[in-house]
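We close this part of the discussion by returning to an individual protein. In the encoding step, the backbone of a single protein was reduced to a row of integers, each denoting a local shape. The sequence in question and its structure tokens are set out directly beneath this paragraph.
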Amino acid sequence: MSIQAFDIIFAGNLPSFFTDASSSATSITCLEICGDFLYLGCKEGRLLRCSFQKSCLLPEQTVIITKAINCYSSNSAITQMKAISALNQLLILSNETLAILDLETLTLVRTLKFKSVTCFHLNENPLSEDPFTIEICAGSKRKILFLHLSEEDVKLVKEVSTSLTPSTLVIDGAHICFAMGFKYCMLDILSGDFQQLFDIDPQQPPLIHRVSKGEFLLNGPGGLGVFVLSQGFSDKPPINFSSPVSALAFHHPYVIAVCRQGIGFYSIIDQQCKQTIAIDNVRSIVNGDGQVFASTQIDLFALLSISWETQFEKLLVENRMEEALELAKNAHISSKEREQHQHMLIDLEKKVALQRFASARFSDAMEMFETCNIDPHEVISLYHNQIFSEEDIRRKALFFFVDFLQRWRIKNLTSDQKTAVDMALLKYLAKNDQEGIELFNFIVDCHTEPNETCDCLKSYGHFHCLATYYASRQKWEEAFCIWDRLIKSDIEDSHFAGYSHVAEQLMKCGDISLVWRFSGEILKRDEEIGAKIFTSEKLACVMPRAVIDYLRNYPRSLRIFLEFLVDKKNDEESVHTQLALMYIDDINCTGLNRNNPSHRLTTNKLRSLLRTSQKLELTKLLEKLNTPGFPHEHAIVCGRLGQHSAAINTFINLLQDFDAAEEYCACIEDPKAWNVLLTACVTEAHNQMFDRVVDLLRRRSHQFDVSSALLCLPDSTRFNVIAPFVNFAVREVEKGLQKMDNISNKYELIRLKTETFSIQNASYCCVCKKKFVATDGFVRYPNGVLTHVNCATNRQICPLTGHLFKIDVQYNS
């Protein structure tokens, strides 16, 4: 899109600048600016120095150029010139010769010795640190010259040969971009590295202009202005010139291109033409310190740049936010104004981002929201006020909005920003989360105003979520009031997880007053789930008797709670006894259907409790179990009371259950019980159990007293039947005898080791016949014979009598 970046003002024609009329038939070939002076090079060899100034006193802004102050004449046209303010000199190219003039008087200082010079350029990014040494590159016949110019002389630093003569060149640092034949090339003057870039369009003159440090603009083929870095590649798109270009200048951020129809101004930001000024036959253009002049053959025009602030304000008025932002980003700002400018950029970025969102450019908007870290209040407000007509765009806008909220939620926001983001996200989830999962996860840690949150959840019918919100804020009473109404169906919510969830929350809450108040509805519907409430660790401080009294009307819940107390090793006899009595009552209720799984499970629990619990009122239970329906349990209690005979007789005589009797004896671990079992089974009334008795003697031989067991067996018992048991008994006797023998041998060994004796002075070794010395060792055999240690070759045979001494001692632990 176009914008007015420059004003053009007619600054006069060439004849008016001469002090006499004798040279009015000439034409302008080149321009140069230095300070407030304009230098005009002419075709017939004249060079004029004129001063100029801007006038704002007249109704319209005007540039006033005075007549030539100084004048220089050469024999041929001035084709190129460049002011060197540091040396107060002007370098001109005329008739393929470089000459140096005084910048003020235009008098000739010296003519350089180099011949056949076609072009030259001053290095604005010099390699030398000396400010009074000017670096110049010049194109000559099939070579490029690198020169150092000082106030006194000029020095040829380096000369590089080329295959053809350069027609134009530009230097930046160590890199020279030049045109040669039909090619653009890049040369590193230090290393000599040479790189061909691309072809020159034969229909257009080769043009090269330095845009910035390390970057050149080349007039490429097909009417393209190609940006080339000193490394030989481009990092930005080319400019598409509207018509063939004859001259180039640069005034940040615009490339000024001269063509046959006029002057075009192209932004390097987006490579688009922003303004066109129609002037015919413009020949040359120059930018000197921000002052831009253009000329035809005889007419001179001043191009006055409109300040970026003015352009910026105009773009804002026209609501062209993005162009205004790009312009502001690329504006040259002084260090004093940089901080204020940065704040202005951030504000503008926010406006552009919001504008992108309003125009449904969602991905671009999100990128800029991230860049400028926009206040979420602005986006939320815009989204609620923005109306998109198309359904697809509305869907994308909603998706974008939710994505924005989720991204901003994890940022480091202020308290009110967090509240705004979470409230907007809450409203979205309350309206759109069909399953309710995200809403439940969100509501636990959201930063919203409680009253607004409650109103929002109520308005969308999320009562279960509202109760969860209250619970997360430790407002348990309000939460359970809502859940209680949901259980009773006074209100409805499809996301309600049921009374089991309420039971879990009561366990988590741990407030016994709320448990008394709200557990009743759960117990009415499911006693098992209701009972779990009272098993919570948070209710451990509640007296068990109070819970037992509360659950008296809910027998299944009461039984579960009593089981919980027994498992937790509660030491009250009344608890254990009450549980056993409840088992008995439950078994009586299901007595007609003994194959019922519930009946079998309860029976097993009762038997286990009777066997293991040490806190039972056994006498009371024995009386309760003294009925035909509980013979097994009656026998267990009898055994707990030491009445083994009664218990085993019940298993054998009443139940005819040998396995149960064996299990009973194994559980109580009393040896007398096994003999009672044996006595009960070997009677004539239980001949059918004799084989089981024999098998029991074989398997559990160690449980019986051998003598008592053998006396219990009938006289008619054959030996081979009870041989395994008798063999076991014999082995036990053998083990006993071996143990006694072992003890005797140990005693004898200890006696021999601890026996004392004395050696007489006249005693001597019976082997070597030498007397014993006190320091020598000796050996004493059991028969009293003494020898030296070295003389006792075999300590088990007496060397005097030949008697063999050997004692085999077995040690059994």
User: Anything to note?
Assistant: The chain is about 40% helix and 20% strand. The CA atoms of residues 166 and 366 lie 50 Å apart.
